[in-house]
Task: inverse folding
């Protein structure tokens, strides 16, 4: 029987064992799973005493962000990924979320098919990679900062990525963003490692943005999907 639970520290070695070689270049899950477990955002699917899948969910206000779904290679195609996604959506509802989002790389056809089957709808595109640099710009505070962020969110239909976790992109309020970074303006508004326009930030770390401009190394385009709960 398949069941789901929060991941524990004891699960980490087993999770790492089946997520090391997801793609030719490897996977990022082994680097972050320990932190996700410590932050209580990681969940596992268990079948016949074995961990068969792992995924994470982060609640931010009334939004939930799903990430890192991985199923053991030998057990793919049995509906485990879909079952886990539906479980996480139920968890999000229980946690008070009214919307859930996730990112899927443009080339990941199986994941696009899965999330569309569950009921997720494409909302926008997210671009990420290493930026050319940060020109500095003028940083904002007080009412001016709030109004600038609120205006930018209005144009993005309420979707943005976190300034301190730029690959976490979901429906956010101005306060969600302002509590995590200071907005600055040059050619566009950016907060920490996320920009509403042209990419900005330290060329040595990943950033995300709502336009494909401003990168010295840009990764695959990601599709931001959302579902009402």
Result:
């Amino acid at each position: 029987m398949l069941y789901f639970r929060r991941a524990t520290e004891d699960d980490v070695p087993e999770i790492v064992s089946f997520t090391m070689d997801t793609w030719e270049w490897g996977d990022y899950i082994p680097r972050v799973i320990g932190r996700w477990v410590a932050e209580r955002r990681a969940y596992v699917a268990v079948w016949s005493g074995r961990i068969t899948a792992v995924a994470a969910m982060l609640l931010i206000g009334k939004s939930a962000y799903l990430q890192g779904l991985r199923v053991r290679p030998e057990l793919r195609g049995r509906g485990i990924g879909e079952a886990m996604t539906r479980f996480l959506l139920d968890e999000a509802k229980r946690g008070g979320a009214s919307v859930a989002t996730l990112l899927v790389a443009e080339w990941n056809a199986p994941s696009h098919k899965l999330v569309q089957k569950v009921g997720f709808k494409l909302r926008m595109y997210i671009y990420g990679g290493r930026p050319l640099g940060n020109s500095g710009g003028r940083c904002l505070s007080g009412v001016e900062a709030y109004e600038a962020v609120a205006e930018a969110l209005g144009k993005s239909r309420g979707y943005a990525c976190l300034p301190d976790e730029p690959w976490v992109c979901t429906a956010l309020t101005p306060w969600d963003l302002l509590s995590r970074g200071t907005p600055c303006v040059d050619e566009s508004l950016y907060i920490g490692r996320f920009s509403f326009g042209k990419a900005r930030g330290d060329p040595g770390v990943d950033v995300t943005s709502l336009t494909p401009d401003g990168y010295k190394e840009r990764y695959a385009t990601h599709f931001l999907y959302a579902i009402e709960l």
